[in-house]
From TrEMBL:
InterPro entries linked: Topo_IA (IPR000380), Topo_IA_2 (IPR003601), Topo_IA_AS (IPR023406), Topo_IA_cen (IPR013497), Topo_IA_cen_sub1 (IPR013824), Topo_IA_cen_sub2 (IPR013825), Topo_IA_cen_sub3 (IPR013826), Topo_IA_core_domain (IPR023405)
Keywords: DNA-binding, Isomerase, Magnesium, Metal-binding, Topoisomerase
Protein name as annotated: DNA topoisomerase 1
Source organism phylogeny: Bacteria, Pseudomonadati, Bacteroidota, Flavobacteriia, Flavobacteriales
Substrates-to-products reaction catalysed: ATP-independent breakage of single-stranded DNA, followed by passage and rejoining
């Protein structure tokens, strides 16, 4: 057995490090944290803020294996990542594995290379308790905020909601941006673009330096331009430079991977993690732009050999954020000699990191900017043409030119023809186009990361999980926003004639941007009304600063928690007791048919329209909102249209046909089959002919593609990918098969494999009782209906073997089930009893009100 045991977080990292260490070292993985706060309950003593950590059930076996390995080793090297989370993992390991200070060493490195690992072994240290406490403070504070605020949302809005210190602020940013867009009033102006010709018929594109607010002013200008002799009034050429950006931090990598590669934040971090663990890049969670001297030298050598010494310009960058602490270097390649790697997906991100780092050490690009002023003294405004010429490409040679979301659509990097002052130009055409101002853009993932970083909210490690959480909670989504249409005026001056046109333009549409959901807006408004301090951007940033102070040893974490909780908890109690319920209720107007009020609000199953009041003698009627509609913007007319659904059409092939909208969107119902109406299609516009088309398309898609032992086999695509269906079995089709042209032998192979698997699934089965003993991933278990139950140990405290379970009686299995759920076999003749139950609750409410 090895004398030295090295413990890291991930198996991939363990595998890479094992290559660099000799026989005297054994490298094992802890698979992340081995213990944490319990999943159920808060797990924190609120008097002392002491966390009650526990080893999760799925980690107990691993911890036992690590304890056994520790007993055989003379020295344990804790080699988790060098950020706060990594320090906490090392501390939990040391505590849970009962490691004595003399038998443990903490080592850190920001790249997984042989030199870095050996250097770390030579320079061990002890666990940094300040970093551990900073992580504990974040974990405990976020747990308290989540556990105390979430039940308030359950009580005041609806069950199942959640709140969080960082996630709620991220939702607030998205909601406020959406409200800003709704309230934005566009202003029109006329922009003029001209194309002029010099004596050799070369084109010069130019823009008028001032816009016109009114159409008549733009038209007057064009009338005057008809008879104007255009001249070159001025030519100015001035040198300029472009500098390379700093090497990547976590946030800038996420932003650039989004704009250049189209990767979302989660995908970027997953690939970066792999690149780090396989030794290709330095640690990927950092807010530092610093490079080591070794990296600067490595980049210089590569640049000089590949491009020439004139392209090399070694430099170091300073981090803007005073609290940068996660790692001590930017994200960079560990070896500049490795220009690409074999894995295509990994290589795309690696190339981005490689080129950005190399560019940061290269010379500035030299440009020459030319500005030509075109006009006449008789005109109130003059045109301006701009062009750029790259004299020396410098860092652009490696990184290229990057356009951002904010860049003008017009490309100014064009070469202008040589002209001289006083030269006469003729116009080819001058166009006056009506343009409207635009509101701020909705956030992309990269844009949201940038904003959170600007405000000092969260840290590199929190951006990806925060963005994932707010989508999982369905507070925001990336649904497609359909554009609106408006009329715009365009006037063209060509060959001394002005042509006026009224065109249509689309505006306001969006794809792949964050939009708040109805429930997201209601939750945000409730939290901002009742927990201003927690949702305040400044407060969230100040909390991050406190964590930094704890990490530096300048503040005690429990004191910080005491100070926070003394103000936070009384607010929770006050809101719970006194705040009104929130459902986003918006009165749209009065229904002309019934004279009753029409409301848009959040109901038990989401956003809905309600006609009538809850307390009315006659019960209100409800309709669900359709995709793309929301409480804040739906009109009375649109709301009333929803009550036309569902509607009946004529029978088709002997079965009833209707059109409706449900939980999963609009549908055509044919007999008992629900068929989704294609995205973007208005269900109210579905005619009999269109419904039959949709049904026929479904029939075609569901038509058998083959038979197996005389029974039909169909195919489809579901949430887990392509599948074939045989009887009641859904069988996933792996990528190795050509799904579009499955052969009979492919189908036989897939079904045979599934049937074999199903045969091995059941140890015993009682179909009538819906009870079975099945083989599972973690061993045998009992299934009753859809519920799963554990198999208890035998009387001698040993586990049942599969063979023994074949002889267990049904009565015994029923006893195992009732031991775990006393009501499992209680007769469920309760559907009819639900009505009295509902009456009871309403009847009880009235006396309760009288007592008060």
């Amino acid at each position: 057995m090895s004398k030295n045991l090295v413990i890291v977080e991930s198996p991939a990292k363990a595998k890479t490090i094992q290559k660099y260490l000799g026989k005297d070292f054994e490298v094992k993985s802890s698979f992340g944290h081995i213990r944490d706060l319990p999943k159920k309950g808060m797990g924190i003593d609120l008097a002392t803020f002491s966390p009650d950590y526990e080893v999760s059930a799925d980690k107990k076996k691993l911890v036992a294996e690590l304890k056994a390995a520790v007993k055989k080793a003379e020295m344990v090297w804790l080699a988790s990542d060098e950020d706060r989370e990594g320090e906490a993992i090392a501390w939990h390991l040391a505590d849970e594995l009962k490691l004595k200070p003399e038998n443990r060493k903490r080592i850190v490195f920001h790249e997984i290379t042989k030199n870095a690992i050996l250097k770390a072994i030579e320079n061990p240290r002890d666990i940094d308790q300040n970093l551990v406490n900073a992580q504990q403070a974040r974990r405990v504070l976020d747990r308290i905020v989540g556990f105390e605020m979430s039940p308030v949302l359950w009580k005041k809005i609806k069950p199942g909601l959640s709140a969080g210190r960082v996630q709620s602020v991220a939702v607030r940013l998205i909601v406020e941006r959406e409200k800003e867009i709704r309230e934005f009033v566009p202003k029109a102006s006329f922009k003029l673009d001209g194309i002029f010709l010099n004596k050799t018929e070369q084109e010069i594109s130019a823009k008028l330096k001032k816009d016109f607010e009114k159409e008549e002013d733009a038209e007057k200008f064009l009338e005057k331009a008809k008879t104007t002799e255009f001249k070159v009034l001025n030519v100015e050429t001035r040198p300029g430079i472009r500098s390379a950006s700093a090497p990547f931090t976590t946030s800038t990598l996420q932003q650039e991977a989004s704009s250049r590669l189209g990767y979302n934040v989660t995908n970027t971090m997953r690939l970066a993690q792999r690149l780090y663990e396989e030794g290709y890049i330095t640690y990927m969670r950092t807010d530092s732009v610093n490079l080591s001297q070794e990296a600067i030298e490595g980049a210089k050598k590569q640049i000089t050999s590949e491009y020439g010494s004139e392209y090399s310009s070694p430099r170091n960058y300073t981090t803007k954020s005073a609290s940068a602490q996660e790692a001590h270097e930017a994200i960079r390649p560990t070896d500049f000699a490795v220009k690409s790697i074999s894995d295509v997906q990994l290589n795309r991100l690696y190339q981005l990191i490689y080129k950005r780092t190399l560019a940061s050490q290269m010379a500035n690009a030299k440009i020459e900017k030319t500005v030509i002023e075109i006009g006449n003294a008789s005109l109130p405004q003059h045109f301006e043409a701009q062009g750029e010429v790259i004299i020396f490409d410098g860092f652009l040679k490696a990184y290229g030119i990057v356009k951002t979301e904010d860049d003008d659509e017009e490309n100014n990097e064009k070469l202008l023809p040589k002209v001289s002052v006083g030269e006469i130009l003729s116009y080819k055409k001058i166009i006056a186009s009506e343009k409207f101002t635009r509101p701020s853009a909705r956030y992309t993932e990269a844009g949201l990361v940038k904003k959170l970083e600007e405000l000092g909210i969260g840290r590199p490690s929190t951006y990806a999980p925060t963005i994932q959480t707010i989508q999982n909670r369905e507070y925001v989504d990336k649904r497609e926003i359909d554009p609106h249409t408006r009329e715009v005026v365009k006037m063209s001056l060509i060959k001394d004639k002005i042509k006026k046109e009224v065109l249509e333009e689309k505006f306001g549409g969006d794809k792949n941007k964050f939009v708040p959901t109805d429930i997201g807006e209601v939750v945000n408004d409730f939290l901002t009304d009742n927990f201003k301090e927690i949702l305040d951007y400044g407060f969230t940033a100040r909390v991050e600063e406190s964590f930094d102070e704890i990490a530096n040893g300048d503040q005690k974490w429990k004191e910080m928690m005491t100070n926070f909780y003394s103000k936070f908890h009384p607010r929770i109690e006050d809101v719970e007791e006194n705040a009104d319920r929130a459902n986003g209720d918006r009165l749209l107007g009065v229904d002309p048919k019934t004279g009753k009020n029409v409301h848009a609000r959040i109901g038990r199953f989401g956003a809905m329209i309600q006609i009538g009041e809850t307390e009315d003698e006659e019960k209100p009627i409800f309709a669900s909102l359709m995709t793309g509609q929301n409480i804040a913007t739906i009109s009375l007319a649109e709301a009333l249209e929803l009550f036309k659904l569902p509607f009946e059409l004529d029978e088709f092939e002997g079965q009833g046909v209707s059109v409706g909208v449900g939980r999963f969107g609009p549908y055509v119902k044919w007999g008992e089959t629900f068929i989704s109406i294609p995205k973007g299609e208005d269900p109210l516009a579905v005619s009999q002919a269109r419904a039959e088309e949709i049904i026929n398309e479904k029939k075609k898609a569901d038509a058998p593609i083959a038979t197996y032992k005389g029974d039909p086999v169909t195919k489809g695509t579901g949430r887990f990918g392509p599948f074939i269906k045989y009887k009641d079995l859904f069988i996933n089709v792996p990528k190795k098969y050509n799904f579009e042209s499955l052969s009979q032998s492919d189908i036989n192979e897939l079904i045979d494999a599934k049937l074999e698997k199903e045969a091995n699934r059941y140890i015993q089965q009682w179909e009538k009782e819906k009870i079975s003993i099945e083989n599972g991933r973690w061993g045998p278990f009992v299934k009753f209906g859809k519920a799963m139950f554990k198999i208890p140990k035998k009387k001698d405290d040993t586990k049942y073997e599969a063979e023994e379970l074949k002889d267990v009686s049904l009565d015994e299995v029923k006893k195992w089930i009732t031991d775990q759920d006393k009501n499992a076999f209680v007769e469920k003749k309760k559907p009819a009893a639900k009505k009295p139950a509902a009456k009871k609750t309403t009847a009880v409410k009235k006396p309760a009100a009288k007592k008060k």
